[in-house]
Amino acid sequence: MITDSFSFKKYLFLLFSLIFILPNAQKKFTIVLDAGHGGSDIGTNRRYDDLGTVREKDITLAITLKLGRMLEKNKDYKVIYTRKIDEFPSLTERTTLANRSKADLFLSIHVNASPTTSTATQGTETFIQGPNQNKKNLEVAKAENDVIYLDERDRETFASYDPKSPESLIALKIQQSKYLESSLLIGSMVEDNFATKDKRNSRGIKQADLHVLRMNAMPSVLIETGFVNNYDEAKYLSSDIGQTDIAESIYDAITKYRKAMERNGSVANSPREPEKPAEVALKNDFRILLMSSPVKYNSGDPALKGLNYVLPIKDNDLYKYYYSVTNMASVRDSNLKTAKDAGFKNATSISFIPNQKLGIGYYTLEVAVSDQKLSSNSSLLNTLKDVNRNKEKGKFYYTYGKFTSLEEAVKTQKELDEKGINNTVIQKVSR
Ligand SMILES: [Zn+2]
To answer: Per its UniProt record, what Pfam families does this chain match (predicted)?
Structure first.
């Protein structure tokens, strides 16, 4: 019958769709491979007579490229590299790349060194994001986070936490990561393979506050593949056999992890979502307004709860404290979250039109506030010409310069900083 054969054709078509179309429509499992350090940032290193200088940035790249080639042979995987050559991507670049690609997993590969002169320490360890649990983890966090200071762009845009600030540690402790469980799973699979397959000394899974993990919106681990200050491990890490072993162990762990996630239904087995276009920069700049206060706090003051790159702008006798600046929506949202995590519950993001000229009024720099009139041979008045003095309610206010845009004021503020005139405040004068 015609209707029957029609149905049968339809059925066949559906069957074909299921067999041939659906698997192709499946989203690939996307992995970001981050070879730690690179370029001017060598990472940890040791010199041995027979091995030469064993450098972290070379080992991490070699392992990453081997692992990437293994994954690329399997069409289920899509691999994104933060670097494939000897260069230094900023931490912002590494994490925004990972977030924009909507990756399923982020692996950062590193080499360890013990802070003491001891050469006995050896083994692997894998870090997941979390508060520092002990002093040793804090040391690893410090060494791996130190690279942040190499890149100027990171200083301003990165949600910077001062890990030494007790406030920031408390904030991190209450922060719940929804990716903690899956990060723990992939981390334990990696460490299991190192121990059973490669007969390495696994030091286990640890939690630390690592910037490169913190900013990622996906399960993320940082793998320390061995200690460069231990001769045997340095030799193993710089050998082709050692690098292949490590890459294979990580590859195998990824395969097991993906299967486990599929069983859980956590990995998209559903048809591919329409590709989202890459994030474009917004027209405006965004700063996070932390608080307004009649009190002036200098950078590092506990009132700022460990947040760095806070820009106070004085407006109508109130100091408004703005944190970070960015024109990327994703970074703005993450900076806002950082501010709230740090304890600024009413923090809100404020948009600024770049290079906007004030129609009425101007910006100036408040360079000093004093109960006493500054002596004419004070270092401030000697360094700066044309400083204005204003007396209000028994206090002397010293201001410098007239600027029509905030950017001009920030530029001069930085110049004054370099001359040793610190903690100046940009003031908006609306008359
Ligand atoms: Zn490292």
So the answer is: Amidase_3
